[in-house]
Amino acid sequence: MKQHLLIFAVFVFVACLNSTKMNAQTLEFTPLVVKKIPKDVDEFLVMRDELGQTPNGGAACFLIALLVYANNNDLGNKLLTMTIDRDLLVQGDGYNGFQPKLSDTAAIRASIASKSFFFNTYVGNTYAPQNYQLPSENLTFDFVRNPPAMYKETSEIYRLLVRCNADAKPRMLKMRKDYKGFWKVYEWNGILAEFPKK
């Protein structure tokens, strides 16, 4: 009897694992459109104030900051500071006396060094044949609509999934709301993961 129960438990576990496998072809996405990439801190703050009060909007602000960083480290460092959770920042000259940890910006630069278009792949309307060239306006970020329960956490911390055009599976960001009501990135290891080999 115990052996039968064990076999059944293993079967259920495997079935659950299979049911949670996800790829971009089997999921529904909710697009979020950013009109243009901000040219300075003031333009970014306007965008942040407009979008940053939802998890998806806060994530889009972070992804925009990564795009800026790829071309302008100084400005990008300031914008990243505004989109990363306060607990993950250190004192520095990024923005308002804080900046991302040097280890985090080093990891970001390593991703860019491996592929200059690395973060462009998170923009939904970029394409491999064009080497993921960014559109001049109306950048789209595609977030999974109604993700599985395993990706929902608490009222303070929210996990979401964003499409990556260089990977069949969407990638996770963990967001946390700050005291002003803006959603900041709390964990983004998945965003820096290498692309699967084709």
Report what the structure shows.
- The protein is of the alpha+beta class and 198 residues long.
- It has one domain (25-192).
- Helix content is 36%, strand content 20%.
- It has helices spanning 2-20, 41-51, 55-71, 73-83, 102-114; strands spanning 29-34, 89-95, 98-100, 139-144, 157-162, 171-177, 183-187.
- It has a 3-stranded antiparallel sheet, covered by helices on one side.
- A hairpin with a 5-residue loop joins strand 6 and strand 7 (183-187).
- Helix 2 (41-51) packs antiparallel against helix 3.
- The radius of gyration is 18 Å and the shape is globular.
- It starts with a helix and ends in an 11-residue tail after the last strand.
- Mean pLDDT is 87; it is low at 4-21.
